[in-house]
Amino acid sequence: SQQGEEDPQALSIQEGENATMNCSYKTSINNLQWYRQNSGRGLVHLILIRSNEREKHSGRLRVTLDTSKKSSSLLITASRAADTASYFCATDASRTGANNLFFGTGTRLTVIP
Amino acid sequence: GAGVSQSPRYKVAKRGQDVALRCDPISGHVSLFWYQQALGQGPEFLTYFQNEAQLDKSGLPSDRFFAERPEGSVSTLKIQRTQQEDSAVYLCASSLRDMQYFGPGTRLTVL
């Protein structure tokens, strides 16, 4: 079973628009991470936000975390065709320091040129 | 520097065959993880090593799955008597601290 769920499952936007993806999870966490996966490729780490942080920026990415609602959002601004990929949130909820991640089901983003 | 590499990239096995999947982590990374990703799903945790010690194998779906990292570097995931439900992409990741670096994965197809 997976810890998180992304919403929406699929998102299609025009190039230049913003894309927002949401993630909900079930247990308390150490941190939450967002990954991108292009079709048939490995996962690329985008951003990590710790449980005591509320917002983080990296280039065109903005991540928010609301631990009271057990939810996070990823905003990609000024989207490009190259942003087309699946996006996963992953939570580190380890109590043993193992840092294994629990992934959501992903949001499939399509950016139309 | 070089990232995480996995081999083979693709493997086709007949049901009942044994397979071995290899992971070369980033040099110096203490932690190594194996995940299984079914089609259209997110990765699911299988097992975790810290150096050569397998500290968590709670995600291994059955006793047909076995992983090792004997010298604390390269790791092998072995699946015995493969079944069709084992078909998936097997991802390896290594880390030094919080961030995990993933390899390209091995796509296993069991016929």
Mind sketching the topology for me?
The complex is a heterodimer of chains A (113) and B (111).
Chain A: E1 5-7, E2 10-14, E3 19-24, E4 31-37, E5 43-50, E6 55-58, E7 61-66, E8 71-76, E9 85-92, E10 101-103, E11 107-112
Chain B: E1 5-7, E2 10-13, E3 19-24, E4 31-37, E5 44-50, E6 53-56, E7 65-68, E8 75-79, E9 88-95, E10 100-102, E11 106-110
Parallel strand pairs in B: 2-11
Antiparallel strand pairs in B: 1-3, 3-8, 4-5, 4-9, 5-6, 7-8, 9-10, 9-11
Please tell me about this protein's structure.
The complex is a heterodimer of chains A (113) and B (111). Chain A has 113 residues and is mainly β. In chain A, 0% of the residues lie in helices and 55% in strands. In chain A, the strands form two sheets. In chain A, strands 2, 4, 5, 9, 10 and 11 form a six-stranded mixed β-sheet that branches. In chain A, strands 1-3-8-7-6 form a five-stranded antiparallel β-sheet, with no helix packed on it. Chain A is globular, with a radius of gyration of 13 Å. The mean pLDDT of chain B is 94. With 111 residues, chain B is mostly beta strands. Chain B is 0% helix and 50% strand. Chain B has no helices and eleven strands. In chain B, strands 2, 4, 5, 6, 9, 10 and 11 form a seven-stranded mixed β-sheet that branches. A four-stranded antiparallel β-sheet of chain B has the order 1-3-8-7, with no helix packed on it. Chain B starts with a strand and ends with a strand. Chain B is globular, with a radius of gyration of 13 Å. At the A-B interface, β4, β5, β9 and β10 of A face β4, β5, β9 and β10 of B.
